[in-house]
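Submission sheet (multi-component)
Chains listed below:
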Amino acid sequence: MAPQFLSRFVALTVLIAPLIALGGWPQADAKTLRVNIDADPSQIDPITYSELNSYQVLEQIYEGLTAITPDGRAVPALALSWTPLPAGYGFRFKLREGVKFHSGRPFTAKDVKYTFEQLLKPGSQGGLSAQFLVNVIGADDMKAGKANDLAGVKIVDDHTIDVAFTKPDVLFPIYEFFIMDSGIVAEQGADWMTKVDAGTGPFTFKQWKRGTEVDLAANPNYWGGAPKIDGVQFLIIPTGDTTLSQYDAGELDFVSLRENAYRRALSNPDYKNQIIEVPKAQVRYMGMNQNLYAPFKDKRVREAISLSIDREAMIKGLYNGAAFMLNGQTVPGIPGYNPDMPPLKYDPERARALLTEAGYPGGKGMPPVEIQCTEPFKDEIAYYANQLGKVLGMQVTPKVVERATFIKAMNAGEVAFFPWGWTADYPDTMTFLGEMWYSKSPFNRARWSNPDFDKVIERAQTEIDDQKRFALYRQAEKILMDDWATAPLPATVTVALRKPNTKNVTVTPLGYSVFQNAEIE
Amino acid sequence: MLIKLALRLLGLVPVLAVAVVLTFAANRALPGDPVTVMLSDHSADLDLAARLRAEYGLDQPLWRQFVSYVVHIAEGDFGLSFRLVHTPVIAVLSDGLKISPILALAALAIAFPLGAFAGAGAAINRDRWPDTLVILFLVIGISVPNFALATFLVYLLSIKLGVLPVAGWGTLDRAILPVLILAIPSAAYIARLSRTFMLEVLQQDFVRTARAKGLAERVVIWRHAFSNTLVPLMTQTGIIFGGLLSTTFVVETIFNIPGLGRLAIQSIFARDYPVAMAIILLFTAFYALINLLVDLLCIAIDPRLSAEQAGRP
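Outcome: structure written.
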């Protein structure tokens, strides 16, 4: 009898346990916008943030000196205007008056300086925004722990602040900082971000259930006008397929689809009136490292590779139309874009002729090479490998590498042949030309280097007049493409879905969404 | 008995020690590091990356990182998560800790009786239709991959019929599909074992004796034969539970359940060493404990086992 009794007892206890353990599932209000993010934010902290999920949440709560419009321009936000300093390099910012933090404290120049210092202080794990302060006078001393005060930042009065640099940094006003309430630590303690937020934006932090959701509430006192919805609920859903299923089941109002789920969405006619497509502010390119693969040293080989890629077919076949031609290394969504670059052609005949000229007729004499990328791009690298074999007779093997491993190898300049992209950090073409192809930039992963190009970029870095700077970008891009430094690849589109009753959700070229004006009917 | 239990518990210490060394080595053998993942494309900014590496103590020599890790664990401190900034590992795990073991136990609670009775039933009806039916079920249950089964059931029950939610966690209806997906292959496995054991037992002398005594067939089968298949089945439960725990990795990912399995996968990809290692250690401990529990249960059920152990020199 004992065994039967035991197994019955065990079965009963264990069946009841989950019943007790399960709590209630939070039901969203009718006016709460339910949206998806891929993973938990690393922290809802304006100082340490370094990845897109945190950014997506922070963007609704915090504001910078400037904001980026949906068409990619920087406009005044917490700063009203800025002028160059009369002596030395730097800017004087006039700050917006009458803005209040969510704590009720007024926003003043002190908070701007405090935010900058927090980003630089050793031990504060300052994330991505910290890089924008490298040229500020005294930044190095702060990082080294030699100073507690950022010498280059002077508070003139409550709503005027001067920022001085060691060398020109004309784009400083458009860099994004999340300005935080300098009184928050004294009031809430060092772990304040687990309880409240320290922003001025349209939404306030409500709660974060780790692994499940982040909830924000509307800020009725927002200086730009109170949101028309009661709040935003970010549901944490790591896979694209689950995201779409939950959207179909009516559990989400708006979803931004990454990687492969967008193909399912685009090929399904049911979504026709729910699709939002926004070109990404992301330049894509073929990395061809001349130090690692000898044939890449010949410009004709690089051009032949570009001529072998049928970009129109890729846009239709690989991307289901969610991509567009890029003839250079600038994109339409970002100021400084040059729309007049000569169109790139697909010309297998000319490609073969160039390769023969370079001494590799039919690919003979070219050592085998691997083309590498991460898992989401496996189809794309398979296409290149196949296409280059077919058109040029090159022996190319596609190889999928895990993301962290791949990025580390690219950073070290150890990948010979790879398609990759770069998303704008700020709305100016410098973010592409100056970061990806300038020889002194750590992000020049293909290790292409050209002194003439560098000189033009260095001049642009000090040119405060937009039109003059854009002219220099055109010059630089011409040098880059005349040398076939790369084969530009089609740029992609952010695909999002919104339910018919959800209005005015904005998807920006930088890949995040703005819910400030959202409405649910 | 208590001394025996204490000794067995003490025996877990070297098991966990080996697990600590292996998980530390395995985590660090992965290329890439937490800062590369944290900064992603911006990790090429060496100044920024080096600063963060120093703030997380990742610039220390590996042996020193190991020593400080071990010392901290010994003090019960698993440290701070790398991926979730300013968050202690214990806080990151606490929610998942209430989910994964419950999922696995609930699945076991369904799979064990279902499998045991189905297997025994098949054995009694050997080569007749109930046997064929059970064999068909167990072949399907064992060979259809859980992710395929999950996708099919979600499509059918959640999207087409709309009777169950697609994914998530927090209410009972959200737990039905995940538990079912976990339980089906285990039930099939248990049914297969149960059928084999039962067939074996039915051939044995004491069954023949019981029948010869004139006992009712029901009594012969269920009280004499079936209860004797339970001990060997129980000994397999530990292994099955281990399998269930590792399957929660897949099921939690499919159903977006904030349990330890999904967390482990995210942590490994993010190179969140402290969290990944803590989860692996926890799973090792669960596995060791459930096996201990099974051994004790078997001794309680079968007096021969304790006699055997007592008789050992």
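Remark: Chain B touches chain A through 74 residues (CB under 8 Å).
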